[in-house]
Amino acid sequence: MSLFKNFFFLIAGPLIKVKIPKDNDGKSKQFAFVNFKHEVSVPYALNLLNGVRLYGRQLNIQFRAGRNLHFILFVFMV
């Protein structure tokens, strides 16, 4: 997860949190929620990283409105 988190931080800006859900066996579900500190980071990351290949898989990135003024991207690896 730290590589994934560092990838987004270095590319788009400071993060509040990265959450990568796991299944019952403890394996990654191949998607993540990325919370950015600054609103301007969201469209920048969306435009720059959507479709990029990471770990041999293409990133499909969508904006999700967050709670408590968090700016969230939903990242799905296909």
Question: End-to-end span in angstroms?
Answer: 17 Å
Q: What's the overall geometry?
A: globular
Radius of gyration: 12 Å
- Parts with pLDDT < 50 across at least 5 consecutive residues: none
Q: What composes the largest sheet?
A: 5 strands, antiparallel
Strand content: 35-45%
Query: What is the CATH architecture term?
Result: 2-Layer Sandwich
> What is the CATH topology?
Alpha-Beta Plaits
What is the number of helices?
2
**Average of the residue pLDDT scores:** 79
Supply the CATH superfamily name.
Answer: RRM (RNA recognition motif) domain
N-to-C order of helices and strands: HEEHEEE
Strands of the widest sheet, in order across it, are 1-2-5-4-3
**Multimerization state:** single chain
Beta strand count = 5
Structural class: alpha+beta
- In the CATH scheme, the class would be Alpha Beta
Helix content: 25-40%
How many domains, as an integer? Answer: 1
